[in-house]
Amino acid sequence: MIEGSGSDGERLWYAQPAKDWNEALPIGNGRLGAMVFGAVSDERLQLNEDSLWHGGPRDRNNPDALPNLPRIRELILAGRLREAEDLALMALTGVPESQRHYVSLADLELRFAPSGGAAGEYRRVLDLRRGVTTVSYVQDGVQYNREAFASYPDQVIAVRVTADRPGRLSFRVRWNRGQQRYMDVVRTWGTDGLAMAGHAGGEDGVAYSAAVKAVVKGGTSRTIGEYLLVEQADEAILYVAAATTFRSADPELACKEAAGEAARRSYEELLKRHVTDYSALFDRVRLEIACPAGGKEERPTDERLAAVEQGEDDPGLVSLYFHYGRYLLISSSRPGSLPANLQGIWNPHFLPPWDSKYTININAQMNYWPAENCNLAECHLPLFELIERMREPGRRTAETMYGCRGFAAHHNTDIWADTAPQDGWPPSTFWPLGAAWLCLHLWEHYAFGGDEAFLARAYPTMQEAAQFVLDYLIEGEDGRLVTCPSISPENTYILPGGESGVLCAGASMDFQIIRALFDACLKSARILGLDDRFGRELSDALLRLPETKIGKHGQIQEWMEDYEEAEPGHRHISHLFGLYPGEQFTPEATPALAGAARVTLERRLAHGGGHTGWSRAWIINFWARLRDADKARENVLALLGHSTLPNLLDNHPPFQIDGNFGGTAGIAEMLLQSHQGTLHLLPAWPAAWGDGCVRGLRARGGYTVDMEWSQGLLRRVVIAAARAGVCRIRGLGPDIVELNVEAGRSYAFAAPFEREFEASL
Description:
Number of strands: 35
Number of helices: 18
Radius of gyration: 27 Å
Largest sheet: 9 strands, antiparallel
Helix content: 25-40%
CATH topology of the largest domain: Glycosyltransferase
Number of domains: 3
């Protein structure tokens, strides 16, 4: 451990209760989530269950799409954009135009018996090492403590309330769901529990239920009306469970069984099971940046964040933010849960911003950028399950709307894996490559882990996505294959005559995604020994795709033509997909394109780009891939100072969780890169952040990497190999080091790196 670092480096803490949702602290087990507010007299747990969505499945594919598709393409190619968009708004939108939306579960309210004394010594903490939030204070000479966590092994949220003097705990518990307007029934459950239930979106929507059970020591519990009363207790433990008909035929019974089973264990056992399970994931990676003893970590988290907003550097807050992102992914995406949506699982609204769905033109993908390199590959699995469920709806979309084989999706999907277009907003709606991008996550999972059995299962899905693209491409005037209609999410271009539009024949991001998908399919087929004929189709198509162009400003062109942008500082920078998360632009292999990518970023930022949290997070990853440590650091601090809420959640605004995950991935990318067959150690780590160490980062090829550094210079490296082969390493000196590694062996380097390995461990 580094001098001056300690457990406070992995804790968020505050000296006062949360004033609003943006200050509350999140807990979650992938399926169940809560925001804990920590008020002294009126505690609030705002609860979510990942499968509580409004309404049921529908076939929204527009039957008039295919008959009108040739005319739409004709209008686009003729430059008659207004006519093309007008027809597309009728023929290419879903029917009805919107997918289903995520819904808040309820608030669990705890109202404590009034006291005449003010509370002192208040402290509210989220311990990232244990996945537990605590509240403590002293009132009338009594020390009160609360502890809450969401258990994955036991599928409940547990809340323990204690006082250090006998009989001083009295409070009432109540469900609140929009002042009961959105709740069908509340009923007592014996003398120590309450259950509530309802339907979300009528008969075709899911039915839901939630239950709370109290176990008290030294006092009593009873129910009156819709209240559960705890009186004169020494300790009270609440077990909270929730379920819907998405998974359970009888949600209320499922809740009562889960809460009842948890209550049969001691609290200590329940907590131990939770911490053991959670820490097995969290403890795989550790990032420490040296902070002087008695320094910034002694200040509350919100004060540190405010200081960064005023221009102060705080490397310790950077490492805290990095670990918080890993905590959030563990808490919102576990095997068996749904994937993390636009708000993870933490949403207080019955009609949330952007419906809190899966936005798959960047946001859902960004949620999973840290899954592999931050050693949380299991957390990636819920996304793969959603992709698999999208195949059948996506086949209907591909055939009905476009007359294509394979499967397709647009820029959103929902709990029901809906693949028809979402909204009627041309800058985002008419983009059918959502499935193509998502399928690249399947390849990334293989690239990091090397599991050929997984690849064999995933390849048919990737192949179907590629098959749709092959059929969707049309021949342009120059014989090139282009996507049409398409867009560059969610930007607008200006024609030489002054007309603006969004529909186009070929956006740069399309071809970068298509190249990446086709290449992944070709590599997969070679590994698995499959599909010579399909591989030839892909190879032939690759030769006919437009190449990325450099425009008149020296930038990467966003469209096939060098149009002017209506918003030069637009939040989407989709035409740099080939820089990150793709690997088509690199300083070594394509220096001209890497230089043009730098110009693109500089132009975006000069015109106010990066003004949303997720966009700023993407920019961090771009600068890391360009190996500009100072720019990467500058944008990490901008993300913290301008797009981060007091509870460290990302601020779009409003809250979206993708910025947290993208920011965490960006910090990891500054530490370690592994694209194009080479491990690059500390490719963009700023010397200004002093001494530090990291352990447990994963790299493509089956490697796990530990590093120590001082003032940005490596001092020690350990590389563990899961597979045998040649490991190519950049960063140990002027040249790339090539090392023959054996599976299951670790290899250590120590400065000076001119000599051979210090040891083979």
